[in-house]
Amino acid sequence: MRSVSTATQLIQTFFKPRRAYAFMAVRVVNKLVRDKVPAIIMDNGEMPNFRILDDDEFLAALNDKLMEEVAEYQESRNLEELADIMQVICAISDVIGGGKRELEYLMDEKAVERGRFDAQAFLESIDDMK
């Protein structure tokens, strides 16, 4: 089980979830957000309604977030979106027990064993020579 981060503790302390009342306009979001987003929402004069996810929910939400960030990158081809993807991947690695260093080690190991993508080789077919 992962430890509760300082940011999570701050969120739990200062931004308690609350009910939306009938007279309030509510935008349903239902997605994982970065640690500082609830404070940013409050700074904009709105009230965030959220809950802290358990580990299984968190991993599922991270997987959804990964797909969201990949789609945003594919649309924009922006380096900033790649940074978002990397942050989500590192968070997933933390949850499943690897962490960023283990992930980098595995990437390097795979590069030694199978190479990188530097040659820009696109495999079109394989002829069976047997």
| Helicity level | 55-70%
Q: What structural class do you assign from the helix and strand content?
A: mainly alpha
β-strand percent reads under 5%
The sequence of SSEs as H and E is HHHHH
What characteristic shape results from the CA principal axes?
elongated
What's the number of helices?
5
Q: What is the makeup of the main sheet?
A: none
Number of domains: 2
End-to-end CA span: 51 Å
Report on this model:
Helix 3 (55-76) packs antiparallel against helix 4 (79-96) and helix 4 (79-96) crosses helix 5 (99-114). The longest helix is centred in the middle third of the chain and has 22 residues, at 55-76. The protein folds into 2 domains: 1-52, no CATH class; 53-115, no CATH class. It is mostly helical. The chain contains 5 helices and no strands. The chain starts with 5 loop residues before the first helix and ends in a 16-residue tail after the last helix.
What's the gist of this structure?
The chain has 130 residues and is an all-alpha fold. It is built from 5 helices and no strands. The chain folds into 2 domains: 1-52, no CATH class; 53-115, no CATH class.
